[in-house]
Amino acid sequence: DGGITQSPKYLFRKEGQNVTLSCEQNLNHDAMYWYRQDPGQGLRLIYYSQIVNDFQKGDIAEGYSVSREKKESFPLTVTSAQKNPTAFYLCASSRLYSNQPQHFGDGTRLSIL
Amino acid sequence: AQTVTQSQPEMSVQEAETVTLSCTYDTSENNYYLFWYKQPPSRQMILVIRQEAYKQQNATENRFSVNFQKAAKSFSLKISDSQLGDTAMYFCAFMKHDETSYDKVIFGPGTSLSVIP
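^ inputs. structure came back:
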């Protein structure tokens, strides 16, 4: 079955540590996205990528970095510069320039030790 | 800039009853899409229903239907014959229609729906 796989499901970060969240899709979608979800605030866009080797900042990119070396993969690194990283992170993908909705992964819960 | 508002942070409904979740949005665009997503306790976001702004007919999907009022910029979701599996967070979302460039999806803050047995 086609879909989006996020790993790990739960992740803990120590102070000053960088951590990387994985996102893989086999839907052959060109566009991929990372969202942060906090209680009462809905989803906020961190980064998005429309094509391999290209990505753009979203609304809350500070303290995060991404790469898009393969069409199927869009990992998100939460750096030590992100002072409040505790949140639920969702990865999504979609066809480019279409009216089709985004498909989401199951998410990763990141917490601070 | 577009905004999406969901004025009901929490709602509850008895099993088998009908419930309506509210959503309003602000935009100067004429062509756009609206979505309702469901996020159950398992946390996976699932598309429930979508509406094209140029269509006057309200979208329906089994027990789910919308009341789309374009002039009022309102997009409510009605769930009929509520089931325990409908317990979830529901997010209203807006996307501008553009076939030449990317435009992001704007999500509302969500409504937590509990279906009571």
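The mean pLDDT of chain B is 92. Chain B touches chain A at residues 4, 9, 33, 35, 37, 42-47, 50, 52, 91, 95, 97-102, 104-105, 107-110 (CB under 8 Å).
thumbs up if we can close this ticket
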